[in-house]
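Backbone-to-sequence.
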């Protein structure tokens, strides 16, 4: 892995990120900021976060292949790399079929897009691929630095590591709710998980592959499913849940703290796991 991300990063939608949050994440010792929500292919948000910080890396989680062509994104990578060498990991993916009328033959689209990044001169070691199922996980190992799975559990991480093999980046996302009351925690987590993810075929299929049932996925998600996809409890319980991904084979865990103000949660995680 050419870009060292550290063990734990933060995951936030691009519209939830700013220079102040980036500086605090850097100060707290997080290894990377993952930009979610399909940022624009010009990637000016990456410039903003890197300009504001000194050490932390920035990754996209993800640039949507259907929104921006590889040539545009490749040019953005070169601009960023020239200014901040070795601090940007370009995460790309195909999103989900419900989001675009053009969505068809997704595997072929991924291969074509990675070919385009090759042509644009984006190194394999500087890019990652959103991957859930074994076919795309294998492709991520062959054509990129590795995989960035979203909405998964340590059981998926363990299987993903088996598919990827050693020496390939595995950076799953994990949702967190800092709340010890299970009902209150689920009230925060369930809306984020149900809409849209439990209505999207790729996420449903992945969860079904890993032992969850249709009943778990329907009607807002079972309590057990919500608890697995969004850890809650005190900091000891949450730290143990993050560490479970690392023990299962993850190199790096992208932590998404849910709620109105994520900073107290990120500070608690830093104190527990990064001090």
């Amino acid at each position: 892995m050419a870009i060292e991300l550290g063990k734990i990063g933060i995951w936030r939608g691009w519209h939830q990120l700013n220079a102040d949050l980036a500086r605090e994440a850097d100060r707290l010792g997080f290894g990377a900021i993952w930009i979610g929500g399909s940022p624009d292919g010009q990637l000016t948000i990456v410039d903003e976060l890197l300009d504001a910080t000194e050490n932390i890396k920035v990754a996209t989680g993800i640039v949507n292949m259907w929104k921006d062509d590889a040539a545009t994104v490749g040019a953005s990578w070169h601009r960023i790399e020239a200014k901040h060498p070795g601090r940007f990991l370009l995460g790309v993916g195909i999103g989900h079929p419900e989001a675009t009328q053009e969505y068809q033959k997704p595997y072929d689209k991924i291969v074509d897009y990675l070919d385009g990044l090759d042509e644009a001169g984006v190194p394999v070691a500087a890019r990652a691929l959103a991957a859930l199922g074994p076919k795309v996980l294998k492709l991520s190992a062959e054509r990129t630095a590795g995989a960035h799975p979203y909405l998964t559990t340590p059981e998926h991480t363990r299987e993903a590591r088996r598919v990827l093999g050693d020496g390939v980046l595995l950076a799953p996302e994990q949702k967190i709710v800092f709340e010890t009351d299970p009902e209150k925690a689920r009230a925060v987590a369930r809306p984020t998980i149900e809409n849209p993810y439990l209505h999207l075929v790729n996420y449903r299929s992945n969860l079904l592959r890993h032992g969850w049932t249709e009943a778990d996925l329907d009607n807002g998600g079972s309590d057990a499913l919500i608890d697995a996809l969004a850890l809650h409890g005190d900091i000891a319980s949450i730290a143990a849940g993050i560490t479970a991904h690392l023990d299962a084979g993850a190199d790096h865990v992208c932590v998404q703290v849910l709620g109105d103000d994520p900073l107290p949660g990120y500070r608690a995680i830093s104190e527990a796991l990064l001090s």
